[in-house]
Amino acid sequence: MLHAWGGRPLCYLLLSTWFSVGPHPLAARWVQEHFLVHPEAPHQETSNYEGPLNRLAFNVGYHVEHHDLMRVPWLLLPRVRALAPGYYDGLAVHRSWTRLWVRFVLDPAITLRSRVLRGEHVVPNWEGSTLGSPRLPPGQADVPIPPAQSA
Fold first, then answer.
1. How far apart are CA 95 and CA 28, in angstroms?
2. 136-143: Cβ within 8 A, 24+ apart
3. Does residue 98 belong to any structural domain of this protein?
4. Structural domain containing residue 92
5. How many whole angstroms from its chain centre is CA 5?
6. Which of 47, 54, 63, 89 is the most exposed place for a label (fewest CB within 10 A)?
């Protein structure tokens, strides 16, 4: 690539990587999407971001809705949320990627193993570290999340 097009495409790729997963607050979306950071919702495999950067980031903050209906275009994810408030309103959310990033870096209870992977079960220990358990028998790996109670 360097030989064919020069350094500009390489610079673009490096900067794209930096802004998508680099050590800065916007990269907290990876934590928001797939890390267990809510002790009040230990079985919630992913969570949403409800902040001002959501529209700029193509609604990636509507991550629970994305997991539920993966073929819905990003532009319509807020509509999915609006159509099913009883299901989505009670879930744990993040309001600041900056605050989440600082917590991810400084909180010893959140580690790179604080995740739920499909087909596996991870048990968070909110007093200290996160302990991973081996694969559960079929049928026990998916813990259903009941819909939120409407007020």
1. 11
2. 143/43
3. yes
4. 20-107
5. 35
6. 89
Region label for 11, one of left (φ > 0), alpha (ψ between -120 and 50) or beta (otherwise)? alpha
> Under 8 Å CB-to-CB from 120, ≥6 apart: which residues?
132, 135, 136, 141
- Note the pLDDT tens digit of each residue in 105-144: 898 888 887 876 655 544 444 444 333 333 333 343 334 4
Q: Do the bridges between strand 93-94 and strand 48-49 make them parallel or antiparallel, or are there none, so unpaired?
A: parallel
Q: Decide if 47 contacts 63 (C-beta within 8 A).
A: yes
Sheet strands (E) in the chain: 48-49, 93-94, 122-124, 130-132
β-sheet bridge partners, residue 94: 49
pTM: 0.63
Residue linked to tokens 């802004």: 19
Q: List, for residues 112-121, the tens digit of each pLDDT value.
A: 878 766 555 4
Asked if 78 contacts 64 with a C-beta cutoff of 8 angstroms, the reply is no
Task: List the structure tokens of 119.
Answer: 């087909």
